[in-house]
Design goal:
The protein is an all-alpha fold. The chain has one domain. Helix content is about 70%, strand content about 0%. Helix 1 crosses helix 2 and helix 1 packs parallel to helix 3. The longest helix is centred in the first third of the chain and has 23 residues. The chain is globular and about 35 Å long. This is DUF4351 domain-containing protein.
Length: about 70
């Protein structure tokens, strides 16, 4: 896949994740924003069910931010 296509795909996935989180939780607060890149490390078939089923606290526990991991 060409680099531009790959970047477009990644941006599209980011928008999907952000929109799902916005629909579920009403806003993208700093805690949620901090874990989006970690969520995107999973393939869509794995992250989609998590975003639809997990509570905010479950997502934060499943995808700890770099700060909370002590890095």
């Amino acid at each position: 896949m060409a680099e531009g296509e790959e970047q477009g795909l990644q941006e599209g996935e980011r928008r999907v994740v952000e929109n799902l989180l916005r629909v579920r939780f009403g806003e993208l607060d700093p805690e949620i924003q901090a874990i989006i890149s970690r969520i995107l490390q999973l393939p869509p078939e794995e992250f989609t069910p998590l975003l639809l089923q997990y509570s905010k606290q479950e997502l934060l526990k499943r995808f700890p931010s770099e700060k909370s991991r002590g890095n």
